[in-house]
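@channel anyone free to eyeball this complex?
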Amino acid sequence: MSARDAILKRLKERSDGPLSVPESDFSVVTHRGWSREERLERFERLISSVHGEVVHTTSAEWTLALAEVLQRKKIRRLALGRDHPVAAEAREALGDAEVELVDVDRDIESWQREQFETVDAGLTSTRGAIAETGSLWLWPTADEPRQISLVPSMHIAVLDAERIEDTFFDVIENNAWAGGMPTNALLISGPSKTADIEQTLVYGVHGPRELVVLLRHPREPT
Amino acid sequence: MSVQSEPVQTFTPGEFHRQAHDALGNPQIRSNFRKAMDGLMAKRRDVFSDWDLEVLRDLGANIRMRALAKLPDLLEQLEANCQANGIRVHWAEDGDEACRIVGEICEARGAKAVIKGKSMVSEEMHLNEHLEAAGIEALESDLGEYLVQLNRQTPSHIIMPAIHLNTDEIADIMHDKTGIERTRDADAMTAAARLQLRKRFMNADVGVSGVNFAVAETGTLCLVENEGNGRMTTTVPPVHIAVTGIEKVVEHLRDVPPLYALLTRSATGQHVTTYFNMIGSPRKPGEHDGPEEVHLVLVDNGRSRIYQDDELLDTLRCIRCGACMNHCPVYTRVGGHTYGTTYPGPIGSILMPHIMGLEATKDLPTASSLCGACGEVCPVKIPIPDLLVRLRKESVGEGRGNVAGAGTKRSKKEAAAWKAFQWLATHPFVWRVGTSVAGKLRALTPSRLGVWTDYRTAPKPAGTTLHALVKRHQANKTHGEDR
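replying in thread with the prediction:
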């Protein structure tokens, strides 16, 4: 008998007999009832508490904020997609800027070392965010691959304020995740960190050292 | 730099007493653990302060119980959904078989370098030794695991593997083993390790990770981490192998948020970790990165045996947060290595006897004062103290015999002594005569009573029994009231 069949057989023929199946009440992880302002405040407070930097901007002017961040952080090479509106708008706006735009729509085998060693920042869109924990929700795509939010020293993520939901449970349920999961789904809460050296918190281990969130409001924040 | 030169420092559960003695006499170990555990306990308390913790723990326990109730069906569902997503699923009866499977996948790819994300199941399997013997370098990439591996040790904590080391010791390790200039600066040491490991990620042929939750309904593998090494391990190399115990499966995607909320808060007092990485499939056509192959190795290694018994089953609810060890007065003092097992502390003491047998681990269930802290903090409400007692019973042959090595600790002398005590205690007349005689002869009590008196003075029977004292007290009271 294969290991698979032997293991399943033992589990199915459990000697103390079948187990009863309890019902679950998930109300403790949903129904927060926060207002838009509370969500925004909570998201910013929590992601800032783990060294995420939030830059408020508007949907109309966000590429100016991006250019300002790139200049301030001295980014020379920026990896970004092509088709997603975030990437497309950024490409258009940054056409004349000094920053070099690095195409990511090519198989990683052809530029692994280049990405590890020469790209300063990766720009990605986000699908949404979670107020309760200050987390970004990303589903990398062929256009915006997995590594650009991981390998470069800085990750710049563009988030629309109205896409912030209350809890992780709400995000999964409201967006029907169970109906179809992507190759890779990510929650990102701050830059990478460790406390493995005598519990001293250090930001920037294997992943990005910095995370900048360009938080786009529909109009000028009041 | 080589990480394979010296033999790994070994501890065994059979030497628990000697190892505990050594650890207790080591002020460095004592203060490293005391400081770390005090901090972790305070952080956990703070992060749960605005939660209805009992309700959340009930839900966590309930989700894990539901998953276990449906375990064989969920494993089949997980397998089918993973396969539909392109993930290859393997099953292993024990650690050796799991190592063989991982070894064969590596061999088929001609792999020479394996990079590892943190995985306690791979520790349980002794995967690194297996791969090294096959001429494949297995390098740990979690910073704590990396340090421990450089130091030729094993993790002393399931979440913080290098918690037994302080900054000075780590500075020595980084200097001696990796050749960097000696520094005590955590930022500088972390930056050095980052540089060293980035090269390894790029050049690794295979990435091996664990799994925190495997979701049956979607065939998704969830990994919880802060450093980004887990994402690197599962994204950069062309092959990703995830190894996990068969109990890690949950039924629905919606079962994940409550468990994740409990895990990070219970483990390190964080409201969330930096990354929650959900792996759905290998690289799809048209995608530009991610592994070409993803494998899932489902490891039994004693778990299906634990599954048979209604009481022992609760052991399998564990989500590996480590809160039980952080709060254990024994673990906090002796540290993780003393236990000599992959999983130390209370959870190790109720899990390892099933993996290694009670003969090898007979001292672990007694390495507890039964204070109950572990059960109180467990995010999925595993009745750890009850399970410790159950294993104590099993070890002296008074249980159901459902554990390998049951009865190994049974001593005829001890059994006879308790039998005699039971008879005395249920025969009041003999008891009273006996205790009164014992009180009169108290001077004759030996001062050495085996291991008990190694650290304590021998108890002497009281000159007057409690019964007699109460009687005298009541007589005085009555007398007083009469006046």
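from a first look: Chain A has a mean pLDDT of 96.
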